Amino acid sequence: MTEPQSVAPQPAPLLQVTDLRKTYGATVAVDGVSFALPPGGALGLVGESGSGKTTTARMLVGLERPDSGSIKVLGTPLAPVVHGRAARLARAKAVQIVFQDPYLSLDARIGVGATIDGVLRLHGLSDRVARAARVRELLGQVGLGEREAEALPRKLSGGQRQRAAIARALAVEPAVLVLDEAVSALDVSVQAQVLNLLADIRREAGIGLVFVSHDLAVVRYVCDEALVLHRGRPVEHRPMAELLDAPAHPYTRLLLASVPHPGWDPDDIARRRRELSRPG
Amino acid sequence: MISQYLLEIDALTVELPGAARPVLDAVGLQVAAGEVVGLVGESGSGKSVTARSALGLFPPGARTTGRVLVEGADLVGADAARLREVRTATAAMIFQDPRAGINPVRRICDFLTEPLRLTHGWSRRQAQAWALELLAAVGLPDPPRHLRQFPHELSGGMLQRVMIAGALAGEPKLLLCDEPTTALDVSTQAEILALLGRLQRERGLGLLLITHDIELAAASCDRVYVMYAGRIVESARADELFGTPRHPYTIGLLGSSPPLTGPLDRLQPVPGAPMGLNESAPGCAFAARCAFAEPGRCDRAAPELLPLPEAPGRSAACFRASELLLTTEVHP
Amino acid sequence: MSSSTTTSPPSPSQPSPSQPTLQRRPGAAWLRRGFLAHGWLFRICLVLLLLFVLVALLAPWLAPQDPTIGDFANTMAGPSADHWLGTDQGGHDTFSALLEGARTSLLGPLGVVVFSSVCGMAVGLFSGWRGGRVDAVIGRVLDVLFAFPSLLLAILAVALFGKGLSAPVLAMAVAYLPYTARLVRSLTAQQKNRPYVAAYLVQGHAPVYVAVCRLLPNIAPTVLAQSTVNFGYALLDLAALSFLGLGVQPPTPDWGAMINQGQGAVLAGQPLSAVLPALAVVLVVVAFNVVGEQLGDHLAGRES
Question: I need a labelling partner for C220 at 20 to 30 A (CA). Which of A41, A46, C23, C52 fits?
Fold first, then answer.
């Protein structure tokens, strides 16, 4: 196996992940994942089911506790367990997440505007008028208007819900935003809108993105570099263009070849996949 | 009446009470023996309803008109015996989520042999021998062992192979695949499609592949139909569709997926969202999202799916399809 | 009748605990839409329940006579101008007793349901949210509670604390607690894995706040449906207890006690004073069951 190549560390990385490890009983979900994200950078975590990409994402936001390893945001290590309101809010300001399923990731009982309003109130914006203005601004940023702000999530389309979820995450003003397969449940035409939105947010907000996806084409569109995970272990970590032009690891090559394209030969991919899964 | 097609759907309209527009609106498509046909669309386009109609499965409470001919016999209003015959002997379906389609507490053996024993009256020994043969045909490494296993002991990809084996049990001539790889990993997707392609070639099956992924359809089908809001908006040979799409929606779909190679320009997504069942439009259903829509024309009447005079074998449901040929260029 | 009342309450799985989450805010509009969406049986039962509640509330003003005072000149009488539905063997007016009896007969189950639902929600929410070992221990304790027939527990309470309404109601509430607790536990465990809950936690909300103020309202309507079904069964159990003479004591009117006291009248050929309260019990129990189950089905269906 090729040693994962690491990108030269920036002087003050926004997010520094070192040697994350997580096991469930005898199963190793994530092992030896390290990366650094420069300010305004975007990293793709690429892999298939069982690659550990979602577990890594959940560890970044504190929904799973790593067995070992550290996560530093702007040089400050994130505590594995937080106690007290101040610590919780500080943790929230460090990393936010957008989940895959737009249908289950919003509280069905609460309107989109009210949800964001609640986040702002929690994070200390006590003035009602200022809060309402900020809600409008955030929803505007993701392309939602007054009508959507009033609506309960079930009245919105999948794309609108995902925009709302992005606005909700941005309301915390996090240093890093994790997107866990955030566009893969959307219709193709809507997915493109959300991808453009993410590209805009990255440019305007200067926020760091960790983009978790199985889709290399989508990762290429949003990210500068990618970390390919296979069965919980990193196999390749390189700038996007290099990775696509000359993939070093057979698993990366397999993933690339698996994307349907004209002249596609699924038989060849199937053969390569069998070779890769053979032990040894 | 003998039809040259295995499956011929003609002006199939399905209306649900309470919906603002028909679920299917005059859908027509054909699948011949030995042909792989793609049916592409987003959520609510009616692609799954179309596929299910080929088994005589219509939404409950729906008003259905038109014809669905499977080997020349109409399934609209057909009696139970005729439907049973089609479902057991002529057509079979594979669904998106293999885990949802199999009883988790029964062994693979039961899943594969029970229909044979119940509908064809085979003996246990006979059915098991056939099941072993089927599992070998779908490329599972150790058929005797898999036969004894439970669904949870198999990965998603392997289970989808079992589902394919189950679909092949009655030796159908027509295989309907409803998003067969959407729930699977990308590299598994290729494996399943390789398998489907091989089976289709070996057995001369007619294959209808329903997918939301236009790239996948273009890469693995002979002909492709594109559906939008219950209508077929374009049909063409796969390579033609990919090279020179003629309907603005097809153009939009192709422009929506970021490319893996070549220059990385900003995506030109189709604005808005696919039309739901509670929405309707007086004219072209796509007009509201269309960059090429002509006010006063496209929003007045719905264009019919018509053959393009300058491109034999292709059809598009767009007033401006002939003009668009000259002005668009997607994917070099 | 009495043998059937000892069979235990509803199966805990009735409002489909694997499915239900709620997408709408409960409220007047929701009720109206729900009301119209259901069949005639549901509407009739709901009207019937409202009628019974109204009668219970207004009983002192509606009752033509005081049912606690016996008219000894007219015992075991048939219907007459003085006593519309006749009298029992103590000369109590059956019609008035029926109306006043609605009070105690509905108040008892209300106590049972309110107490068991509130405590059941607390236990279930805690157990489902914590998960792991705590959850397993609470689950076993609830299983043990399940094993006690509610009526037996109530009789035990009467033996310890004496007859009356409060002891059996308390005992019954404890016996009914596992039904709500189990339902809430499974719903909580299911909802907890939803990304919206994770999102609240990631935003920095306190876990207790998320569980109580955000998750609980999402499962409350389903719990309400279960409680409605429970109400009917609790009424049946309490009536059985009164019938045995362990519940509400005469002369306070109660349907179960009325059936007991009407036995003599039945033998004397004037069955109204026993049959009518029995009919009232059956009607209310059936109505609560129909309404509760339809609510549950409605909520479960809405999920898909």
Answer: C52
Rounded distance between C-alpha atoms, residue B280 and residue A158, angstroms: 19
Q: Do the bridges between strand B306-307 and strand B315-316 make them parallel or antiparallel, or are there none, so unpaired?
A: antiparallel
Average pLDDT over residues A185-212: 90
Write out chain A residues lying below 8 Å of C21, CB-based: 108
Instruction: Decide if A69 contacts A80 (C-beta within 8 A).
Output: no
**Chains contacting A (3+ CB pairs below 8 angstroms):** B, C
Q: CA geometry: angle at C76 spanning C73 and C79, to 5°?
A: 95
Cα B268 to Cα A132: distance, rounded to the nearest angstrom: 32
Residue A4 maps to a domain:
no
Q: Which residue of B has its CA nearest to A190?
A: B273
- Inter-residue contact C237 to C154 (CB < 8 Å): yes
Of residues B24 and A261, more confidently modeled: B24
The H-or-E segment that residue C192 falls in is helix C166-192
Do residues B32 and B4 lie in contact, with contact meaning Cβ atoms separated by under 8 Å?
Answer: yes
Cβ <8 Å between C205 and A122: yes
Give the Cα separation of B165 and B168 in Å (integer). 5
* Gyration radius from chain B CA atoms: 21
Q: Is the Cβ–Cβ distance between B165 and B134 less than 8 Å?
A: yes
Report residue B127 as tokens: 């059915």
For residue A64, tell me if it sits in a domain.
yes
Peptide bond preceding A80 in cis form (omega within 30 of 0) = no
A259: contact with B, CB 8 A cutoff:
yes
Out of C22, C199, C203, closest to residue A122 by CB: C203
pLDDT at C302: 60
Domain count, chain A: 1
Whether pTM > 0.80 for this model: the answer is yes
Does A103 contact B at CB distance below 8 Å?
no
Minimum-distance CB partner of A221 among B191, B258, B271: B258
Of A85, A97, A109, the CB nearest to C202: A97
Which of C213, C22, C222, C229 is CA-nearest to residue C129?
C213
Give the separation between CA A271 and CA A258, rounded to whole angstroms: 12
pLDDT in tens, B263-304: 888 898 888 888 888 888 889 999 999 988 888 889 888 999
- What rounded mean pLDDT belongs to chain B? 89
CB contact under 8 A, B186 and A192: no
- Strands B36-40 and A76-77 come out as unpaired
* CB-based contact A119 C203, cutoff 8 Å: yes
If 0-12 CB within 10 Å is exposed, 13-18 middle and 19+ buried, where does residue B82 land? middle
- Mean pLDDT to the nearest integer, C123-136: 94
Handedness of CA C261, C265, C267, C272 (dihedral sign): negative
Mean pLDDT over A181-202 rounds to: 90
What's the CA gap between C215 and C227, in Å, rounded? Answer: 18
Tokens representing C285 are 């129990």
Per-residue pLDDT at B331 exceeds 60: no
Domain presence at residue A91: yes
Which of A141, A148, A249 lies closest to A201 in space, CA to CA? A141
Residue identified by tokens 């990108």 is: A7
Partner-chain contact A267 B276, CB within 8 Å = no
Q: What is the pLDDT of residues A69-117, one digit of tens each?
A: 999 999 899 987 888 999 999 999 999 999 999 889 999 989 999 999 9
- Does domain C110-304 bear CATH number 1.10.3720.10? yes
pLDDT at position C2 is 37
Q: Return the C-alpha torsion angle B73, B75, B80, B86, nearest 10.
A: 60
**A34 phi, psi to nearest 5 deg:** -135, 140
Structural domain that includes position A215: 15-277
What CATH number is attached to the domain comprising A66? 3.40.50.300
What SS3 class is residue B294?
coil
ipTM for the predicted complex comes to 0.90
Give the sheet arrangement for strand A68-73, strand by strand: A27-37, A15-24, A68-73, A76-77
